[in-house]
Amino acid sequence: MSRRDVQVPGGIYCHVWEPDHDPVGTLLAVHGITSSSRAWAPLARQLPGWRIVAPDLRGRGRSNALPAPYGMAQHADDVAAALEHLGIHHVLPVGHSMGGFVCVTLADRHPHLLDRLVLVDGGLPLPMPPGATPDEAMQAILGPAAQRLSMTFDSPEEYIAFWRQHPAFADWNADVERYVRYDLSGDEPPYRPATSYNAMAGDFHDLGRADGNDFRTALERLRVPTLFLRAPRGMVDEPGGLFSPEYAAGWAARLPGFTVVDVPDTNHYTITLSEHGAAAVADAVRLEVAR
């Protein structure tokens, strides 16, 4: 595998992993709400025969200077424009966390690009705390991930030390450290997380809108075969995960061709940022290809 960096004119930044030979196919790997393209490095190692296109979504990573509008429709259109720039006309989208919402919206707005989806612990409406305002819901669900975006750090080492205390990363590894280093923005102190707080908040509020919600409309119209991989533990390694088994099963009963599979011994982060989690996602990709 080799990796190249692509700046789409006027648009988002992408990492592209390429095999040495003709690829089996192309994965579109879409990251979560405060994440980046580097979350997919373990998966790239697991699928050496595939081309993997991993964008930094608007407001994240090296696309963090791109302005609003945010929201799932904008991200889906950004991703489609990147694929057009790369000359890619068919992909298997794999979306983690908010990336799952983007992939569902992509299937609705650009259906010619795909014929199935793999959703990784994301892509179903988040159960909101009853009676909470949008900002209260954001803090309740995203918690430390949202708070981190308003913090500053004196050095990359301080940022790494901050992440090493995160309960989701009890098993620290080199992939996580590279992911964290990439997530830091700036050439000198104070350093800031690369994700824009306004982008994160704008996207969360977009998902919570009662009217004109592009993602919810897209989900209700979803008709392509979809595999949903559920992490049994959540964002701070708490049991139960973001989506309970009963909640995911309820959506599977509503949507044709929607299948739920648990990935044991993973949390919301390690389902992509550990060898075990990435291997399970790779197995899911191979299963969808076999089908």
From TrEMBL:
Top-rank lineage group of the source organism: Bacteria
InterPro entries membership: AB_hydrolase_1 (IPR000073), AB_hydrolase_fold (IPR029058), AB_hydrolase_sf (IPR050266)
Domain AB hydrolase-1: 26-269
Record flagged with keyword Hydrolase: yes
Keywords on record: Hydrolase
Name of the protein in its database record: AB hydrolase-1 domain-containing protein
Organism: Tessaracoccus lubricantis
